[in-house]
Amino acid sequence: MEFALLALSILSVLCAEMFNTAIEAVVDLVSPGFHPLAKIAKDTAAGAVLITACGAAIMGYLILAKYILPRYGEVLAMFGTASDMGTVVSVLIVVIVVIIVKSATGTGSPLHGGIPSGHAAVAFSIATAVSLNTHDPLISLLSLVLATMVSHSRLLMKIHSMREIIIGACFGAGITLLVLQLFKMYA
Question: Could you give the domains of the chain?
């Protein structure tokens, strides 16, 4: 029953997207230039796809959470609880390492552009610390989504390339994981 509901949710998103494409094609055919009513028709069709996708995401969460989140919680629990001081130290080290690497590579400035993305590094550092401190799979996933959104904004604003963002995310998560493990070992 759960699989059928999930499959139906996914199919409804695909159908909504097909209707959206058809509506946009007809609107472009009828009104090739800009027209306020054409914009409303296209926006409404796109909104229907968004609402359907949100419904499918909720359905997916309700069905899959009981299978995925306990396993993810077990993985997080393997790392133990990090200290608050370790979290602060790890974020500070990430910031310092990012500035040093940007200076060494001569790319960007400490607060803008270059390798690695400082925003991605700090965002993933915080997301890693939140994940290891809470051991709550939902909070961990939400913090990772937020870190991804911060990183994506750097792409959208054309401040960083995907490579710079991935390097920053790896720096942030890796350094934080290392520092928090050291704090756990010696605390």
Answer: 2-78 (1.10.287.3610), 84-186 (no CATH)
